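Weekly modeling sync, notes
Attendees: AB, CL, MP (scribe)

Item 1: holo prediction request
CL wants a bound-state model with iron/sulfur cluster before deciding which constructs to order. AB pointed out that an apo prediction alone won't tell us much about the pocket. Agreed to run with the ligand included and paste results into these notes for async review.

Input as submitted:
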Amino acid sequence: MVEFFIDGVPVQAERGQTVMQAAVASGHTIPYFCWHPQLSTPGNCRICMVEVEAEGGAWFDISCNMPVTAGMRVLTDSEKVRELRRDTMQMITLNHPVDCGICNKSGECMLQDHHFAYNGMPSLSRDPKQHATKFHDLSDRIMLDNERCIMCSRCVRFTAEVSKSNALGVQHRGDHSLIRCAADVNFDDDPYSDNVIDICPVGALLSRDLLDHARVWYLKATPSVCPGCERGCSINIWTRKTEWTLRSLDQRLNNRIDRITPLENPAVNGPWVCNKARDLAAIFERPRVTHPLVGGQETSVASAIEAAAALIAAARHPVALVSNWGSNEELAAFHATLAPSFQNFVKHDWQPQPGERLEDDVLIKADKNPNSYAARAIFPLLPSDASSAIPLSTDLVFVWGEGAPMHAIPESAQVVLLTSYALPENTRAHVVLPISIQTERAGHYTNFAGTSTGFSACGPAVATVSDAERLFERLFAAVSSVQAIMTAGVR
Ligand code: SF4
Ligand code: SF4
Ligand code: FES
């Protein structure tokens, strides 16, 4: 370790760390735009300038590229540093349109924050601003406002160093510079492209999905886990705050997922996610099953439990197909209650979709389910020839979740289905019990490496939709009482 001083406070730095890295690690604040802890250091924005006290006279340099040396005395808030920062902010905002009122980044923009903290002055320039393309399609997912771009090059470095698509570059020079896609690369082919929206320090890169949907201060973030593959990336799911509930517009706007962003988790995904996480609303917001069905007729939860319990108690060769979208808690509850009544197999609820990247060395894993690791630690995997596990003698199949090979279930077998979504195969089931989805309950998934991560509920499910964990307990109690009656009858 190396000791040096920030504003007179002794700081222990690791050998080789820059002043910026040591400052961030020790809780000191130095402003930055172009620096990012996971990217290379171009040192082009100059906002991180600090003063270094020295015997021969103080000197000034950018802290993001200055290695710490023993005994170094750094000042982050001297009169001269404040003056340099003001000048730098004047320079950076010279051609910036300052159209915060209509900008989607408002509320989480580093330029706004730094202007407020370090400048606060109107523009000193007497020249008209240099205009640039306002709405440039960088891809089908991302719009670029070149006037707001401060040329920090974070987005360019991301595609060169993290996603490795090399999709972005800088065209032209000086105040004519533009971020543009490489001529031979389609940015839509980069499955990590939307990370550039998060790391753009200003409102230059905008998600078409979120554009004009909601201001960020209307939204709350709920920590969750992406179920898109067995990496299990940590995410934030953004939904409308209750205090900003819309009363006169479409009420679905109050409950929808407005956006999904990465939740930094060094053990799993660092600060990144792939685009599949951003598009989870398309999975979670499919048409739902909200009422229990018995024989295709809507009924109460209690009646459906009773009907399912009668089938389970009477079955002689029952098979259960366990969901690998079930949480650790739900799997444990199933294992402790209903599992002994069945021959159990784990099925894949989701398979890779056409055109989807199967696997890479960034984040994406081939198994497109979040909890295969935990499910397979308890139950065996359903063989690819499903009929070998569900023989003709099977008289009941208990299906939990999606993706069951309905074609392999003997025609004579009854089906009890626990599902969340209204899918065509639901008609095969005699009893359908609606269950909550991940955004309506809390739990944990364990990823391919054995790391468990928790998720929280964004909001409650409707009353007729049960949590699977609770449902297993109710079903178990109902099956036990049917079996007790049957046993008493036999005596
Ligand atoms: S678009 Fe954003 S991330 Fe890219 S160079 Fe401009 S300001 Fe930086
Ligand atoms: S890598 Fe997997 S878990 Fe991570 S965001 Fe993509 S699909 Fe989700
Ligand atoms: S953050 Fe140091 S030069 Fe940009």
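Recorded for review: Residues 108 and 279 are 21 Å apart (CA to CA).
Action items: CL to compare against the apo run; MP to circulate these notes.
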